[in-house]
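Protein details
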Amino acid sequence: MMTITEPDNWEISSCSGMKYGQYVEWEKIDPEAALRYGKMLESDLHELKSMGRTGFWAMPHTLRAKAYDHIISSISTHQDVDLYHQSTRQLFGEHKISTHPFPVFMEDGEIPRYCLNKAGLNSVKKILVCINKQFPEVTFCPILPALVSLLLHFSEDEAQCFHSICSLVNYTDPAKRYIDQTFHTSRASCMTFGDLANRYCRGIRKLIASSHQNLFEFYSDWIMWIFADLPFTYAIRVLDVYLLEGYKVLYRVALALLSLYKVSVASRVAHVDDFRRDMKSFVENVSRHITVENLLKKAFGIQLPSRKELHYLFNANKDALIHRGIHQRHSYQTMDLGKFNSNLVTETEMRVVWAWIPERFALFNPTRLFSIKEHGRSLSLLYSQVVGQEPTVLLLRTADEEVCGAFLSSQWMGQKKHSGEELSFYGTGECFVFTLRPGMERYQCAVTQISGTLNKNESLKKQQDVHQSPSSKSISFEDSLSDIPSTECPLGTQQNHPCPTGHPDGQRSTLMFMAGDEEKFIVGGNGGSALCLRADLTEGYTERCNTFESPPLCRGKFKIQSLEVWGIQYP
């Protein structure tokens, strides 16, 4: 998508454009469009969503304009027409031309052109400057120029476009938000997308991380793939559903684009020097690969977590950014492996593992908590070294030089409450197992359940509460998730085992992530153990495990040559 960039500020004409088609009775020119508009007015939200997804008001231009006005009116009924005119008089006065700096929420002066003429671009600049004045709390929002440019196509005048944007900015329902307004919220959304991509576009993170290119920079563009890089005819179809369904639509479309890109780049990965630039070019030319109808069909075929779960993950990511002290883009630092020292994996392999873990933990550097070489072969010593630590990464190398491991979302608990009692499983759906040699692959269940906070005291208490309850099989992120069923149907990839429906066996099979006592430690427990380590850490075994839908991670019964446990180095 062509963008217009100016060096430091904008020259803006105080003149306003004409109202679009104000002298024409469009209903008489196109009766079919009039009938469709009438049907829209009679439809409830569910019916409107279906219409938006299928392009019901895609043509003619005036029908889409009426549809947008109807949808945005349902978001905000109050329209202060004078507000925009008051702002323009204060900002631009009677001068024919005035100069204004870029609004603070823009990273640069880029405005997607979207077929706008010179007068249209001037109007976009005016509206953006007025938004900057109206919402001083909006300090970072790179998609606003694109939204203004798109909505201006379907607005009667600048004032209506301004009102539409104000309605989106003012919308307060966190489950159906529209616009990120600060660096923290924008970056937390980016991290949330990264977590989703880790589940639904498996392989792309490993590919980028193993090439030593910057994942942060790659994913930081995700929303601009839609509101800058997509061709106009694709962008407005996304806008149709975005206005109705909110932010979740953007996750869907970006995941669909990333999935298509993964297929495209697989055959030419050796020739890609810059994945970020290559992705941008791919999206700009997406019409060569898929129609907009099939793109939306693919996007809505992705079974995402609920809005409540997405909002919870978003907040967890935002908290991690604040805890890490990242307040602007330039304050982010990639994982520092300058002092990385492992007897088991290479730096590249560790980068791949760190690319697999949830985004909010990948912000921090790894720190080694236990190794056989340093601490000896003892499961009880391992437990003592990792107490109070979550999450952790378990790595092991067998005598056959196979390397595998697990990401464990919860603290290790290595004892039973009573002798003879069965092992109590715990952990969350963020646990996963993986192989590094001879091949790299990650296996994770598709149950959405979020693991530990950065508040270790609170997290430790919850772990202890679970441990003290013989009936407990799993822990959740916080009490606020208690009303979210932890046995939801698997999301994303198809699972071979049936979806849990509340039956004890179904629930147990879904939540059997990790368990341990003095004699053994187990990762995954349904249909077989993904990993089982003996007390002397000399041998173990691996089986096909339905918990992660994983095959044996190495030779079935193996001797342990080396074993390490890594944690998160919090500041």
In short: DSSP finds 23 helices and 14 strands in the chain. The domain at 182-311 is CATH 1.10.472.80 (Cyclin A; domain 1). The first strand starts at residue 3 and ends at 4. The two ends are 41 Å apart (CA to CA).
